[in-house]
Design a protein that fits this description.
Layout (H helix, E strand, L loop, with lengths): L4 E6 L17 E2 L2 E2 H9 L5 E6 L4 H8 L4 E4 L4 H9 L8 E6 L7 H12 L4 E7 L6 E2 L5 E3 L7 E3 L3 E4 H9 L7 H7 L5 E4 L10 H11 L7 E11 L7 E4 L2 E7 L9 H13 L5 H5 L11 H14 L2 E11 L9 H11 L5 E6 L5 H4 L3 E12 L2
Parallel strand pairs: 1-4, 1-6, 4-5, 7-12, 16-17
Antiparallel strand pairs: 2-3, 6-11, 7-10, 7-11, 8-9, 13-18, 14-15, 16-18
Helix pairs in contact: 5-6, 8-10, 10-11
Bound molecules: cytidine-5'-triphosphate and magnesium ion.
Amino acid sequence: MIKKTAAIIAGAGSGHRLGADLPKALVKLIDKTLVEHAVNSLAPVAQLIVVTAPAGFEDQFKSILGDQVKVITGGVLRSDSIRIALAEIGNEYEFVLVHDAARAIASTQLATNVINELASGEQAVIPALDVVDTIKEIDANGYVRNTPERANLRAVQTPQGFVKSVLAHAHASAEDATDDAALVEAIGIKVKVIAGEERALKITTKSDLARAVEILLPNIQREIRVGIGTDAHAFSADTSRKLWLAGLLWDGEIGVDGHSDGDVAAHAICDALLSAANLGDLGSNFGVSDPKYAGASGATLLTESLNKVISAGFVIENVAVQIVGNRPKIGTRRAEAISAISKALNGAVVSVSATSTDGLGFTGEGKGLSAIATALIISAK
Ligand code: CTP
Ligand code: MG
């Protein structure tokens, strides 16, 4: 016989740190409130769901959630809320999941994994993630007391699962605790830790809410911008001048005249990047008269442009540049050029192509070089 599972969704907190003017569980995440998301994720695996609401908001919770769940008034502390909810769950339920409405987008699969462990004989099961930061235990004066071994530490999530009688026993002798497993540990029950998931993040602050949107709608909400840039320089009368093009030095080729190194491909890309982010152009950013940029390499200007684009809140999706001219022949060094530009742009996806113009115009007449570039950037958040 399949054992019955009840779920408690703790939603009675005020959401002080989120700073909305309504309880956190009622805050909207895309199309639904946090508590609706949480109910939806547990509904497929729990035969009864009890939701704790802040006093005064019970009717609002009921009208949003309908008859599929039981809404009750929560307590002052989270553990009070859980204790009150537990009293609503009859003895026909073998297992209880305790979940935070704040972990609104935890997956149904995570809840299933917890229940499967209970079904295989565990009495208490919690999902958790590895910890990336080193954690310090400190004393009341703000000095480090101890540094626990990071490899042994886990960041705990919900839903947590318990054999109901075990959870009831733990809460009967209860103090306050930020998670239920701590109370179960205190009565000497072994708590099994299973793999948690990123999407079970606890929505505490506005940036957590933004992260949850990103998880639910990857890319869709992001701003995508395209930019365009061109540049042209005449070949120099000074035959000793070196040619820099697409981030490379071209031995045996005559260079172009210009304030900087005259790398038309790099400059066109810089303009495309600045244009995509609506940040003006090379001249307005790096001033042709600014001595800082006299002789600046194409790679330097690419990196500086990238930094401006990043500061404006964007990341590069890709850039493409086409070099126009009779010489040099780009094909043999295309891979090298792509790699030089990409390196200056911190690993961005880059493509380099080239064309001659059939004898027409200043490029066709061999008087100089030009380049045209596009850049696609997306907002980082
Ligand atoms: N919770 C509860 N009863 C309480 C306090 C908290 O049911 N007396 C719930 C919250 O609704 C939340 C979960 O416990 O889903 C975890 O708490 P937390 O993330 O701290 O939420 P809040 O207490 O609402 O937020 P804050 O601490 O920022 O005020
Ligand atoms: Mg709280």
